[in-house]
Amino acid sequence: MIQSVNPVPAFDIKQQYATLEAEVSAAVLEVLASGRYIGGPLVEGFEKQFAAYHHVSECIACNSGTDALFLSLRALNIGAGDEVITTTFTFIATAEVISAVGAKPVFVDIDDTFNIDLKQVEAAITPQTKAIIPVHLFGQPVDMTALMAIAQAHNLAVIEDCAQATGASWNNQKVGSIGHVGCFSFYPTKNLGGCGDGGAITTNDPEIASKLRVLRDHGSKVRYIHEEIGVNSRLDAIQAAILEIKLRYLDNWNESRKAIAAYYHQFLNQVPGIIVPQELAGGAGVWNQYTIRVSNAERNGASAKYRDSVRQQLQEKGVSSMVYYPLPLHLQPIYQNLGYQPGSLPVAEQACHEVISLPMFPELTQEQQDKVIYALKDCL
Ligand SMILES: *Cc1c(COP(=O)(O)O)cnc(C)c1O
């Protein structure tokens, strides 16, 4: 048991392992004894279960969420001369892979939900645009009905970045099953996290699926015959064994996250100086993060300095927090060549100055949640 004198961590993945130790350890030992470490029945079994969970026909496991995105772009033949539209407020991997295949990322600002502002997507489309990568950031689904309508009208592929949203749905349809492909990460702190790196792609398109299987395995269908430049991006059997066990608990864990978010919401909703996360009516989010915004001076002149001072005070009161993300992608040093300036995408730039992600993991106790709430109210 965690005592109240201990600081509240932003996340704690050791606790989750402790609850599953017997089951997970036995499965890992079995893999070690089996001698099948890469591919094989455990990986195929997990792919089947992950596909079934999403009500899609195909799942292709790979080495990371980043690879899932990279392989998807490759399978859709996106490369030099192409443009891909995405949000500026996301983890670098979302855009990095666009550059890695030789295409150009086109960044769009966000709205109040922290997700891509769909009203601004259409204006970013050019004759070179080939795809859109919506990110279900912090576990909150993008309005996929509106996004798919835009994509269809302009004949664009949709690659869902579901890295932070495993189990979320939009209008009762799981994210990752709505676009042409869905990309997932099993990084340890994601909603379905392995004990190492891992990722997967979901799709209902058998042709894309077979391309993905070839690309993740050195561009080879028949051993030692290589038809394409591929990569080595396979999921280890140990990770598949662990993930298959954890997938059975995912819905319960997501329910716990939802209850914690509701509790935070209840006590933080009316607090002056705090903006709680905004949700859309059709979305069922899974709260990878519970991210508030703090601002002083009636939202004029809200600065990163003020936010950082709030975090510092929280830390002194025994509450850890995180900043996702301090700098939007359009202002990153690597993207200076794209010509964006400070002020180009102002909503995201402001968010970067105001966001604080509070402790959020399924095992967070009510006592810890209370501590977070009291500490935060004290700081403002
Ligand atoms: C974690 C993450 C990724 C990358 O996943 P990895 O498994 O760490 O490679 C991509 N996009 C988003 C939004 C993420 O949060």
Question: What this model shows, in words?
Answer:
The chain is of the alpha/beta class and about 375 residues long. It folds into two domains: about 230 residues, 3-Layer(aba) Sandwich (Aspartate Aminotransferase, domain 2), CATH 3.40.640.10; about 130 residues, Aspartate Aminotransferase, domain 1 (Alpha-Beta Complex). Helices cover about 40% and strands about 15% of the residues. It is built from twelve helices and 15 strands. The strands form four sheets. The protein has a seven-stranded mixed β-sheet, with helices on both faces. The radius of gyration is 21 Å and the shape is globular. The site of pyridoxal-5'-phosphate has 15 residues, from helix 3 and helix 4.
Topology:
Blueprint: H1 13-34, H2 41-54, E1 58-62, H3 65-75, E2 83-87, H4 93-100, E3 104-108, H5 118-124, E4 129-133, H6 144-153, E5 157-161, E6 169-170, E7 173-174, E8 181-185, E9 199-203, H7 206-215, E10 220-222, E11 225-226, H8 237-247, H9 250-268, E12 274-275, E13 283-284, E14 290-294, H10 304-316, H11 346-354, E15 355-358, H12 366-379
Parallel strand pairs: 2-3, 2-4, 4-5, 5-8
Antiparallel strand pairs: 1-9, 6-7, 6-13, 8-9, 10-11, 12-14, 14-15
Helix pairs in contact: 1-8, 2-8, 3-4, 3-7, 9-12
The chain binds pyridoxal-5'-phosphate.
What attributes does this structure have?
380 residues; alpha/beta; Aspartate Aminotransferase, domain 2; Aspartate Aminotransferase, domain 1; 2 domains; 3-stranded antiparallel β-sheet; binds pyridoxal-5'-phosphate
